[in-house]
Amino acid sequence: MAEFELWTAGRAAKAIFATAAALVLIGVAIWLANWSDNYRSTELTQEKAFARMRGLAGPDALDCGQVAGGMDASPALRCLERAMREGRPFWIARENSFHPRVAMEPHWMGYTRNRAGRQSLVIFYEPVSVDATGSLQVRGCPRIQLRLDDGLPGPTCIEYVDGKRYQLPPFWFKWRTRPAE
């Protein structure tokens, strides 16, 4: 009987240890997944950010272009409208600033959809100087809309948080002149 109790206690300890190790590995995997889509780096470039968007959309995605501030977005938005109407995968990026009266660095907002229908919003800030870090954030986007709620051409990501409807970005700001490099 004593041998059985020792044997059972040994097995229980192994099971507890294995469970704890599995939980740690799951935690590390979740942290790595979040880190890979939300990170900062001094070596983050526009091309790397656009490559990430292409990767999210997949190899057969329609490239609807990159619209810098002050450019005509019409061709890119027509491409996006066609891709959405046909249910094709796509990616598009547009330069923006959150608010014209707030001094913020220009940033890029990308919208992607892959063949499986998974949609993403990508927000990319370039490093503004040699020592600065850029940032890249990838989030799921429940619905991509072609126009903003105020009727201006989009795209925008529509999501609901605590029952409230939000669009990202809330508006597009076009630069009158390019900011100093």
Task: Describe the model.
With 181 residues, the protein is an alpha+beta fold. The protein has two domains: 1-39; 42-168, no CATH class. Helix content is 34%, strand content 31%. It has three helices and nine strands; from the N terminus they run αβαβαβββββββ. It has helices spanning 2-37, 46-57, 74-86, and strands at 38-41, 62-67, 90-96, 107-113, 119-125, 134-140, 143-147, 153-161, 164-168. The model is unreliable at 175-181 (pLDDT under 50).
Properties at a glance:
181 residues; alpha+beta; 2 domains; 6-stranded mixed sheet; 3-stranded antiparallel sheet; 9 strands; elongated; disordered C terminus
Lay out the secondary structure.
Blueprint: H1 2-37, E1 38-41, H2 46-57, E2 62-67, H3 74-86, E3 90-96, E4 107-113, E5 119-125, E6 134-140, E7 143-147, E8 153-161, E9 164-168
Parallel strand pairs: 2-3
Antiparallel strand pairs: 1-6, 3-4, 4-5, 5-6, 7-8, 8-9
Outline:
By secondary structure, the protein is of the alpha+beta class. Helix content is 34%, strand content 31%.
Distance between the termini: 79 Å
The total of beta strands comes to 9
Work out the helicity level.
Answer: 25-40%
Helix and strand pattern: HEHEHEEEEEEE
Low-confidence runs: 175-181
User: What would the average pLDDT be, to the nearest integer?
Assistant: 80
Strand count, sense and barrel status of the largest sheet are: 6 strands, mixed
How does the overall form come out from the CA principal axes? Answer: elongated
Strand content: 25-35%
The whole-angstrom Rg is 22 Å
How many domains, in number, for the residues?
2
Number of helices: 3
**What structural class do you assign from the helix and strand content?**
alpha+beta
As laid out across the biggest beta sheet, the strand order is: 1-6-5-4-3-2
